[in-house]
Specification:
- This protein is about 40% helix and about 10% strand.
- With about 375 residues, the chain is α/β, with parallel strands linked by helices.
- A 6-stranded mixed β-sheet has the order 1-6-5-2-4-3, sandwiched between helices.
- Helix 8 (about 235-250) packs across helix 10 (about 275-300) and helix 10 (about 275-300) packs across helix 13 (about 355-370).
- The longest helix is centred in the last third of the chain and has 25 residues, at about 275-300.
């Protein structure tokens, strides 16, 4: 797995870095040395596997040794069955389009608020999670990327999206990936359109086939990708559990405004008892998705600039990570500001009444099975 918040872009294809060999080894073996960064791994030979482009000699557009337009166009040649973006969909000249792929509870609101404090960046929220029917969805996304550069839409423009829902049939794809992680191509499976719409009454976090339709626009505009990820499945599940309590009390999912922060403070003063069974279910789901999400991003790094933004690293060294992220987006790094407040932070044991019970239950769940309990839900 890549190091904290590593940016994978064209320059990496010139030879890779030996220092990354240990961290990328598992991915390079799984993908048979296809990634440019794998040239630092000792087991990736000069000859390479048959039919696989050599590291440092990529044929992808947007990287050394390539020809053609934006870095995602060749991806769509592999996935020709997916509908291309609307005719004329292209980025505004001089702009930098980007998108953040994220599951819930990985600090995306914090990042959005911070990036919007930069005078050259506009980052919208989850405005393109739904509305996948008809061409209007794609046209609206193209219009945003192609908007004139000004105060409303700045030079560097993007949004966050629950892309990892992978067309609303995610569970089956996760189970298939778990059974055969090396044989299953994560990005390709994520982009495969769902055969059936969600059951009546089910409202997925991202609409039916949104990932595929959105990807066609990223292909047309050459959008850079920020992958917002989190290592600890238990912490992510706890954050979701508290978010549900926050929503019941305050009607919001994050604490950004003064009113929202005050309501969160009141909730903490009252104390919260989370649903242990629900949190354990969320832990299972998060563990099931974590490796798959990272694999999707690793695969995408073969085709476009990708920034791996790990929540834990952002907490540990926010200034350094935000500096790297700003350079990735092509803006001069500056001190960013955000009013977003973490809903589960240091000292949570003082107001989450059954935190120890949840932690012990999660430990038992793993111990009983000898590994993260992800297989039970696949049948």
């Amino acid at each position: 797995m890549l190091t904290a918040a590593a940016a994978v872009h064209g320059e990496a294809c010139r030879g890779g870095a030996a220092a990354e060999a240990g961290t990328c080894a598992s991915w390079c073996r799984a993908e048979k040395c296809r990634f440019c960064k794998c040239s630092g791994c000792s087991f990736c030979t000069a000859a390479g596997p048959p039919g696989v482009p050599l590291a440092g000699a990529s044929t992808l557009s947007g990287v050394p040794g390539s020809s053609g337009g934006g870095g995602l166009r060749r991806t769509h040649q592999r996935y020709a069955q997916y509908k291309p973006g609307p005719a004329g969909c292209s980025p505004r000249e001089g702009s930098v389009p980007f998108v953040m792929w994220m599951p819930g509870r990985t600090g995306s609101t914090w990042v959005q608020e911070a990036l919007n404090s930069h005078p050259e960046v506009t980052m919208l929220g989850e405005v393109f999670n739904n509305g996948s029917t008809g061409e209007e969805f794609s046209r609206n996304m193209c219009s945003f990327y192609g908007a004139p550069i000004g105060r409303r839409v700045r030079r560097v423009r993007g949004f966050k999206q629950k892309f990892f829902q992978c067309n609303a049939d995610l569970h089956d794809k996760l189970c298939a990936f778990r059974r055969q992680p090396m044989a299953m191509r994560a990005l390709e499976s994520c982009l495969r359109p769902a055969g059936m719409p969600p059951p009546a009454g089910m409202a997925p976090d991202a609409g039916w086939n949104v990932s595929t339709r959105s990807y066609s626009v990223y292909s047309a505009t050459g959008a850079r990708v920020i992958c917002s990820l989190r290592r600890s499945s238990l912490d992510r599940a706890l954050s979701k559990g508290v978010q549900l309590a926050l929503f019941r009390k305050c009607g919001v999912s994050n604490a950004v405004t003064e009113t929202e922060r005050a309501c969160l403070h009141a909730l903490q003063q009252e104390g919260v008892t989370v649903d242990v069974d629900k949190v354990l279910q969320l832990v299972q789901e998060a563990e099931m998705a974590a490796e798959y999400n990272a694999a999707v991003c690793e695969a995408q790094a073969r085709f476009s600039p990708v920034f791996f933004l790990w929540y834990e690293d952002l907490l540990a060294q926010p200034e350094a990570i935000f500096d790297e992220l700003q350079r990735f987006l092509g803006v001069e790094p500056r001190r960013l500001k955000s009013t977003a407040q973490r809903i589960v932070s240091t000292g949570a044991a003082s107001w989450i009444a059954n935190l120890k019970q949840v932690q012990d239950a999660a430990t038992r769940m793993r111990g009983d099975r000898g590994q993260p309990a992800t297989g039970a839900s696949c049948g």
